[in-house]
Design goal:
CATH class of the largest domain: Mainly Alpha
Number of domains: 2
Strand order of the largest sheet: 1-2
Helix content: 55-70%
């Protein structure tokens, strides 16, 4: 095998490093879900992440070929004078590079939009029972509509579509893979949908009294979500502002990686618990009694009817039993919003129950009427018993 060109060593190394960690995050998430709830109880976000991994693999392979086989060449880099002066024998490699670039751009949009839907399905389970749940379906509709608009842009901006790869004659400024209509439209729709997704849980999380570590964890995840938006903006700045398309390509891959990490991080939290490895993570026991078990292949019991909801849920179903009595539910996800609300309520109840109530004396008076046959005409005898 021939050694890599010096200019390709750094991007290829970063490319496959990001892919390795992204793949690890996805498989850890799937392993965690399989162990806790079983494949038969997977939800839409679990299947979407498998599709996202397949697309992520595709864009990584495309980027590898684009860097090594064509040296990053595509028709967007050519000036009109260069197109005229280029020998016919050199045109095929530029056309091939343009096709790879366009395929990579389509794949980039596909993975980002799949991960948006993945996150919204995840939110749907986490905020179930809260008022923000009604925002999930409209947000999904917005994401799907935005994706459809981008498909139309790819299909209609340059007609015929093959002119996107043409070297000579010059097909015009909008018939190149790296044109302003594609990039600015994708940026606007990407930022809009990202902002909507990030804002959904904030009204619920903001007022919560959470432990410091959990609040830091949530802020970290939201910070990474903001980083995805920053990466999308930097991609445009490098391409059209600094004319550095090579750096922009790496920021595209970094954005994909961060989007994957943000989506999987909350789901792999149970792996860091010793109960998870002992097969006890799905169990919860409360002071009033009662134990429930998960439904995964390593759980203690598979009889829980709600097992399909996994470790993220159950808190909203048990909020009504805070006052006492039997309460049953699996251990929720550490980043679950509904769980955090339940914990806040439980802390209030627990605090109130531990405070010493003022002492009081209760006097109970009971009157008993006793009627005797041999009373000799006397009226009923009344006795008063007093208990202290």
């Amino acid at each position: 095998m021939a050694p890599l060109p010096a200019a390709a060593v750094e991007p290829i190394t970063e490319l496959w490093t990001l892919y390795s960690f992204g793949t690890l995050a996805i498989f850890l998430r799937l392993f965690c879900r399989w162990r806790l709830v079983g494949i038969q109880n997977f939800k839409p976000d679990d299947f979407l992440v498998v599709l996202a991994w397949a697309v992520y693999t595709s864009i990584t392979v495309l980027a590898h070929i684009f860097i090594l086989d064509v040296g990053g060449k595509h028709t967007s880099l050519l000036t009109p004078a260069q197109r005229i002066a280029m020998p016919v024998s050199e045109r095929p490699i530029w056309e091939y590079g343009s096709k790879l670039f366009m395929a990579g751009q389509i794949t980039y949009v596909a993975i980002v939009w799949i991960l948006k839907l993945n996150m919204l399905f995840f939110y749907q389970r986490l905020v179930r029972g809260l008022w923000v749940e009604k925002c999930i379906i409209p947000a999904m509709g917005l994401v799907v509509t935005a994706g459809f608009v981008i498909v139309l842009l790819f299909a209609l901006v340059c007609r015929p579509f093959g002119h996107l790869f043409q070297v000579y004659p010059d097909p015009g400024e909008y018939c190149v893979p790296q044109n302003t209509v594609f990039f600015y439209s994708i940026l606007a729709l990407n930022l809009t949908t990202d902002l909507v997704i990030v804002l959904i849980p904030i009204p619920v999380i903001g007022p919560l009294q959470l432990p410091l570590l959990r609040r830091i964890g949530l802020c970290f995840l939201f910070g990474l979500g903001a980083f995805c938006m920053v990466a999308a903006i930097l991609r445009i700045v490098f391409v059209f502002g600094l004319k550095r398309g090579d750096i922009a390509a790496m920021w595209t891959l970094r954005e994909d990686f961060v989007a994957i990490f943000v989506g999987q991080a909350p789901m792999v939290v149970p792996i860091f618990s010793s109960k998870f490895w002992r097969g006890q993570y799905g169990q919860s026991q409360h002071k009033s009694g009662g134990i429930s078990s998960g439904t995964g292949p390593y759980s203690k019991s598979n009889n829980n009817k709600n097992g399909s909801e996994g470790h993220e849920l159950q808190s909203h179903k048990s909020r009504g039993s805070l006052g006492g009595g039997l309460r049953v539910g699996k251990k929720p996800d550490p980043y679950s919003i509904t769980q955090a609300m339940s914990e806040s309520q439980e802390e209030i109840v627990a605090k109130g129950s531990t405070e010493e109530a003022p002492r009081m004396v209760v006097t109970v008076q009971r009157t008993v009427d006793v009627e005797s046959v041999d009373s000799g005409g006397r009226g009923p005898e009344r006795r008063v018993e007093r208990w202290l």
